Amino acid sequence: MTTKGLLVTSQFNKTVLSYDEQTGAFVQVAASGGGLGDPVGLVIGLDGNLLVSDGQTNQVKRYNSATGAFMDVFASTNLSGPIGMTIHQGVLYVTNSNSPQGVQRFDAATGVNTGNFVPGIANPSPRDVKVNPANNRLYVLYYNAATIETFDLTTMASFGLLMPVGNPLGSGGLFTPSAIAFGPDGNLYISGGTFGGNLGVRRYNPTTGAFIDFFANTGSDLYSPFGITFGPDNNLYVAIQGGANAVMRFNYPSGAFMDFFVPNGGGGLTAPFHLTFRTGPTLTFTLHRECLTNVEDPGMGWQIEGGKVLENGEHVANYSSVKRMSCGTREQNTAQLWMTLFFLGGKPSGKGGPPPQNITLHGAHDFNSGDEIGSVSAASSAFSGYIGEQFVRVANTLTIG
């Protein structure tokens, strides 16, 4: 069952581990197998399944978000030492820390390579990549140079370095940085630093590159910061290695240390690198009803509905909905509900093609309001990552996730 939570790569035991987003308690192994050699980066794919960069096999591998089972090698063309990843507007960006260094670009639906971003300086060893939603530019973090280079998403041309190259220390004392994130305030946060009490996360102006402050100090030379992410609570989560294999939590906006959200070795965590919260892309559809039939029987009755499923005005699927009324539903004027969405694509079943990709929902229908709530109970491979996710239907709008 897919559950929202914190996902952390665990390098030495070659897994991705999942933790409760409220308590930090270990939940399950979220990815393993498939020859996973060195899991470092991770991102939730467009289909809701988990993509993991494998620095040993130079691949991005896909894992079922419900079971953690290996599905396939999603992308591999021109990858060499892949680490950080991000998805933006249907595109997957993956950093290459080895030659050819830079960022490889892939279609996030198919895994087909569509180009690469070339560094403007020699041997920078890219470690992480993010898109700044404020200016729609690609930000690439350089480990060897302690700086950021920004790029145009369309032309892939460089806008130049955001701050001077480290010599050896970069702006604000930045050194050997590992990860970046954009905070709730829109500023740029970078993990890294030096021994002597200077390890942690620094904050920068994302437009000028100016150093703002040393936002979060990991508090000990034993705690080297790696991956960073902001959680649903807006607080900052930092994966640490060295004296502990754990995830630290810092308050936003103060930067004060809160706790070890995931304790040392929690759930078998070893050498954590990147981390992310699994929220999954929300699916929003408009249901265009074409038929509605009421059938009475000794048990009480059925209501059968069907029609087209639209996404942004485009016909993407058909749906069939069945509601069952009985003496157990009469008092609340409700009904048992199940609905299946049958997605278009490929040859129609019975004409040489496989059955359509699909999602099945179970829940309740309220006849007073017409609203429906419940969860995804089953799905084909393309949508298996949504199993267990909640859905709500208000009028003709269906939202999943």
Please describe what this structure looks like:
There is one protein chain. The chain is mainly beta and 401 residues long. The chain folds into two domains: 274 residues, Methylamine Dehydrogenase, Chain H; 118 residues. 1% of the residues lie in helices and 54% in strands. The chain contains one helix and 32 strands. The strands form seven sheets. An eight-stranded antiparallel β-barrel has the order 25-26-27-28-29-30-31-32. Strands 3-2-1-24 form a four-stranded antiparallel β-sheet, with no helix packed on it. A hairpin with a 3-residue loop joins strand 21 and strand 22. The longest helix has 4 residues. The mean pLDDT is 94.
From the structure above, extract its key features:
1 helix; four-stranded antiparallel sheet; 2 domains; 1% helix; Methylamine Dehydrogenase, Chain H; elongated; mainly beta; eight-stranded antiparallel beta barrel; 401 residues
Find the count of extended strands (DSSP E, 2+ residues): 32
Assign a percent range to the helix content: under 10%
CATH topology of the largest domain: Methylamine Dehydrogenase, Chain H
The description of the largest β-sheet is:
8 strands, antiparallel, barrel
Strand line-up of the largest beta sheet: 25-26-27-28-29-30-31-32
Structural class, by secondary structure, is: mainly beta
Query: What is the CATH homologous superfamily assignment of the largest domain?
Result: YVTN repeat-like/Quinoprotein amine dehydrogenase
In the CATH hierarchy, what is the class of the largest domain? Mainly Beta
Number of domains: 2
CATH architecture of the largest domain: 7 Propeller
> How big is the Rg?
24 Å
Overall mean pLDDT stands at: 94
Quote the beta fraction. over 45%
The number of helical runs is 1
Mass-distribution shape: elongated
